[in-house]
């Protein structure tokens, strides 16, 4: 789960980057192995009836009556983290990011032999969204209750907690979750169209268009309609970022001018060209929207001067995000994201690595964008900024090459893989040292194969949660919450801010590891030629 305090607060202090990050960027890692493990993780998070080719064998069928009480079939989908609630907004964001990863780096994923697994990870989510979208203006957005779920520590196969389902509709709108689900299905439709499944792609696109129309026509915050989500995934940024995000993905999926018109005409009113922030997450979509919009400057050959001007504004705000995370924005701490002493981006203590993985993905994509344009990243001066942090001196613009942007993204990824002061990989199962007591009910409890007896709601706390031993199962491929602001990590189940993993932590890294795998291979071939 994510801490939601201070969503739009930019860094209050910047710590100088130590030589640890320099050594991290030079470290050799097996990105292909990291990619394979990342995709395996999503099989651990599956809800529903598991397929015959399920590779994570310690998991079993679960949630087989989901939706029954409400008269709908809501079997399937993903558990978001270490509990058993199916939250629609983070699940949709996870699928959007998986789809974007495949769209950007599908060739590299296929070259690693992981193309089929990537498609399966997306389809497990989109199959569920099709079920959950039961009418043009109706979307089931949650199954299970977070409060009662957290009172229990048991396997998903045994769960006895409430499986009540919650929905948004015309009378109870939920624009954030409807628009994010539209974005996920639109992005996935492109993936499956490219993969040759035209029928499924068309079905996804049909749902995406209906969901976007629903989100836009009946505007309202989803956590006002589904109040039980407020303690877990409240909407701090509102729904306007999701509306722009969904429209942009629909433009990419359809080529429809109406969707691009929407993104351009609402750019100012909806904050797309106004918000410059340091966080991209399941809640705040602005940086992802801005980076994605800037790609149109390459892809759209016949843009009017008006449209190009607006898209350049999107790019400017997206580059504020990139510069902030690289600590390159002129003007001091107020305009840059904080760091740990070893140089890790540090937005907040609870599940910080979700912000890092999303940043690494956007920086990787934008570095490729800059390279294609043949232009550098420009970190510009804010003329209205307070200059007290710089001794009253006016700062100058900073110019950064595309290669440096990618190198910084690589250094952050390498930190996650173990090039850090703790010498711990925060990708479970990768390397020799990684978290062994992940805050995860299924992974920390004996499987049905090993212990066939029923494990009750509170029994698991005594038998498994409180045990100091390692989990009986490694949650391979999970990116945990990660270290604190001083680069320290406490590998204990109770330290959930550090040891709980979420689907949206790992999803962006599928694309990043694919790109770094390609980069590593090019470097290897270059070194061979130089011998």
From TrEMBL:
E.C. code: 3.2.1.4
Signal peptide boundaries: 1-26
Higher taxonomy: Eukaryota, Viridiplantae, Streptophyta, Embryophyta, Tracheophyta
Superkingdom, natural source: Eukaryota
Xref: Pfam families: Glyco_hydro_9
Keywords, in A-Z order: Carbohydrate metabolism, Cellulose degradation, Glycosidase, Hydrolase, Polysaccharide degradation, Signal
GO BP terms, alphabetized: cellulose catabolic process
Gene symbol of the encoding locus: LOC123404265
Family classification: Belongs to the glycosyl hydrolase 9 (cellulase E) family.
PROSITE patterns registered for this protein in UniProt: GH9_2
Database matches in SUPFAM superfamilies: Six-hairpin glycosidases (SSF48208)
Gene Ontology molecular-function annotations: cellulase activity
Catalytic activity annotation: Endohydrolysis of (1->4)-beta-D-glucosidic linkages in cellulose, lichenin and cereal beta-D-glucans
InterPro entries: 6-hairpin_glycosidase_sf, 6hp_glycosidase-like_sf, Glyco_hydro_9, Glyco_hydro_9_His_AS
Protein name: Endoglucanase
EC primary class: hydrolase
Glycoside hydrolase family domain mapped to chain residues: 31-512
Active-site residue numbers: 439
């Amino acid at each position: 789960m994510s801490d939601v305090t201070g969503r739009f607060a930019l860094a209050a202090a910047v710590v100088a980057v130590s030589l640890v990050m320099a050594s991290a960027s030079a470290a050799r890692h097996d990105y292909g192995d990291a990619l394979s493990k990342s995709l395996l993780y999503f099989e651990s998070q599956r809800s529903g009836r598991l397929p015959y080719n399920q590779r994570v064998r310690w998991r079993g069928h679960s949630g087989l009556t989901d939706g029954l009480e409400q008269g709908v079939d809501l079997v399937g989908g993903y558990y978001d983290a270490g509990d058993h609630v199916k939250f629609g907004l983070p699940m949709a964001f996870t699928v959007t990011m998986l789809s974007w990863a495949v769209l950007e780096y599908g060739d590299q994923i296929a070259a690693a032999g992981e193309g089929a697994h990537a498609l399966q990870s997306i389809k497990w989510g989109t199959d569920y969204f099709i079920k959950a979208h039961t009418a043009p203006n109706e979307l089931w957005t949650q199954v299970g209750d977070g409060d009662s779920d957290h009172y229990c520590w048991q396997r998903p196969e045994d769960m006895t907690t409430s499986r009540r389902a919650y929905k948004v509709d015309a009378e109870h709108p939920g624009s954030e979750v409807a628009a994010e689900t539209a974005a996920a299905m639109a992005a996935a439709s492109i993936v499956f169209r490219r993969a040759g499944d035209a029928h499924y792609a068309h079905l996804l696109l049909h749902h995406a268009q209906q969901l976007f129309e629903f989100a836009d026509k009946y505007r309202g915050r989803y956590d006002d309609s589904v109040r039980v989500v407020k303690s877990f995934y409240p909407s701090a940024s509102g729904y306007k970022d999701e509306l722009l995000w969904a429209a942009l993905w629909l433009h990419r999926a359809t080529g429809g001018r109406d969707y691009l018109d929407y993104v351009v005409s609402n750019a100012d009113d909806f904050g797309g060209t106004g918000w410059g922030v340091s966080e991209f997450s399941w809640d705040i979509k602005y940086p992802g929207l801005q980076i994605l919009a800037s790609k149109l400057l390459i892809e759209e050959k016949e843009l009017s001067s008006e449209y190009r001007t607006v898209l350049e504004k999107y790019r400017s705000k997206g580059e504020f995000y990139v510069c902030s995370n690289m600590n390159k924005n002129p003007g001091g701490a107020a305009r840059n994201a904080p760091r740990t002493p070893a140089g890790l981006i540090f937005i907040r203590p609870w599940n910080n690595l979700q912000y890092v993985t999303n940043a690494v993905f956007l920086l990787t994509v934008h570095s490729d964008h800059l390279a294609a344009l043949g232009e550098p990243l420009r970190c510009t001066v804010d003329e209205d900024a307070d200059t007290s942090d710089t001794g009253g001196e006016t700062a100058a613009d900073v110019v950064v090459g595309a290669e440096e942007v990618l190198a910084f993204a690589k250094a952050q990824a390498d930190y996650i893989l173990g090039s850090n002061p703790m010498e711990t990989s925060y990708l479970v199962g990768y390397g020799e040292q990684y978290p062994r007591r992940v805050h995860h009910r299924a992974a920390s409890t004996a499987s049905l194969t090993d212990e066939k007896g029923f494990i009750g709601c509170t029994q698991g706390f005594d038998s498994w949660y409180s045990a100091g031993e390692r989990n009986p199962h490694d949650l391979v491929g999970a990116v945990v919450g990660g270290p604190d602001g001083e680069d320290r990590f406490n590998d204990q189940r109770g330290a959930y801010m550090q040891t709980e993993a979420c689907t949206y932590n790992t999803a962006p890294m599928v694309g990043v590891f694919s790109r770094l795998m390609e980069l590593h291979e090019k470097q290897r071939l270059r070194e061979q030629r130089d011998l």
